[in-house]
Amino acid sequence: MPNPLRLFGFLLVLFLVGCERPRPEPADMKAEFLRRYPMAEVVSVRLIEDEVVARSFDITYRAKGEQETKSISLQYMEDAKGVWELRPPPPAELP
Fold first, then answer.
1. Residue 64, domain member (yes or no)
2. pLDDT digit of tens for each residue in the chain (95 aa)?
3. Which H, E and C letters describe 5-65, residue by residue?
4. Own/partner pairs, 87-95, CB within 8 angstroms, 24+ separation
5. Looking at the domain assignment, is residue 88 inside a domain?
6. Do residues 61 and 46 make contact, with C-beta atoms less than 8 angstroms apart?
7. Are the CB atoms for 26 and 46 separated by under 8 Å?
8. What is the DSSP letter of 90?
9. What is the CATH number of the domain that holds 88?
């Protein structure tokens, strides 16, 4: 007969793992960048800093149809509720 305490512990671990919110990945940043700046093309996205409550990315981009590339660094931060959001807020227009 299975140990009820062990079974409870196993179920608790499964529940907690299922509740964990995924950390933003480069693909998430690329999608968010393109949503905010549809007139730009993403050349690359690189994770430059990975901390417990913050993930920073360096995005290389260019205006559609242009050859010149530029870069911007954006950061996701986790709030007290575990929600990841861009902080500080990104600029309304690209530099």
1. yes
2. 667 666 555 555 544 444 556 999 999 999 999 999 999 999 999 999 999 999 999 999 999 999 999 999 999 999 999 999 999 999 999 98
3. HHHHHHHHHHHHHHHCCCCCCHHHHHHHHHHHCCCEEEEEEEEEEECCCEEEEEEEEEECC
4. 90/36, 94/37, 94/40, 94/61, 94/70, 95/70
5. yes
6. no
7. yes
8. P
9. 3.10.450
Tokens of 79: 């709030």
Question: Is 1 contained in some domain?
Answer: no
Domain residue limits at 55: 23-95
Note whether 29 and 76 are within 8 A (CB): yes
